[in-house]
Amino acid sequence: MREEGLEALLERSKPGPAEGTRRGVAPAVMAALAERLAAHQFASAEQARRWLKKEHGIERPYGTVWSWLKKAKGVLRVPRPSHSRKNPDAAEAFKNGVAEKLEALGIKAGSRVKLWFMEEARFGLHTERRRVWTLRGRRPVVSRQIKYQWDYL
């Protein structure tokens, strides 16, 4: 300060790790953590902590891993359930086919139409997923186990 004044003191670089990095953790590890976060693979910060220890040999306290997940724009959200055997192509084909089937009926434009769908009653096991870590602004979709017996109505 005596040699260059107050301005020189304020221009000094701050000690510690660079902005956005974590002390003692390679950027590749943090990138892998962010990828798994985006893929909704952590149901808890404890699960992420165990993954870091097992895969990369990094052992940090629970609170540290929690803060890393938050700094990676992670949030805990309740996932939207999805059946484990869901076929997205069949669902899209159904959506596209409904309009074609209505047009094939030859109903004149402007007419009121009632659509009736068959529903089934299901009784059985529906496992619930609690909150999982995901990126902020995204709603996770995870498959769940569904076992049931059903009857048509």
Give a short summary of the structure.
By secondary structure, the chain is of the alpha+beta class. It has helices at 5-11, 27-38, 45-56, 62-71, 88-104; strands at 74-77, 80-83, 120-126, 132-135, 141-144, 146-152. The relative contact order is 0.17.
Strand content: 15-25%
Q: Give the C-alpha Rg.
A: 26 Å
pLDDT < 50 stretches: none
Task: Determine the mean pLDDT.
Answer: 81
What brief labels describe this structure?
single chain, 153 residues, alpha+beta, two-stranded antiparallel ribbon, two-stranded parallel ribbon, 5 helices, 38% helix
What does this structure look like?
- With 153 residues, the protein is an alpha+beta fold.
- 38% of the residues lie in helices and 20% in strands.
- It is elongated and about 90 Å long.
- Helix 3 (45-56) crosses helix 4.
- The chain contains 5 helices and 6 strands; from the N terminus they run H-H-H-H-E-E-H-E-E-E-E.
- The chain has a two-stranded antiparallel ribbon. A two-stranded parallel ribbon has the order 2-5. Strands 3-6 form a two-stranded antiparallel ribbon.
- It has helices at 5-11, 27-38, 45-56, 62-71, 88-104; strands at 74-77, 80-83, 120-126, 132-135, 141-144, 146-152.
Question: How are the SSEs placed, and which strands pair?
Answer:
Blueprint: H1 5-11, H2 27-38, H3 45-56, H4 62-71, E1 74-77, E2 80-83, H5 88-104, E3 120-126, E4 132-135, E5 141-144, E6 146-152
Parallel strand pairs: 2-5
Antiparallel strand pairs: 1-4, 3-6
Helix pairs in contact: 3-4
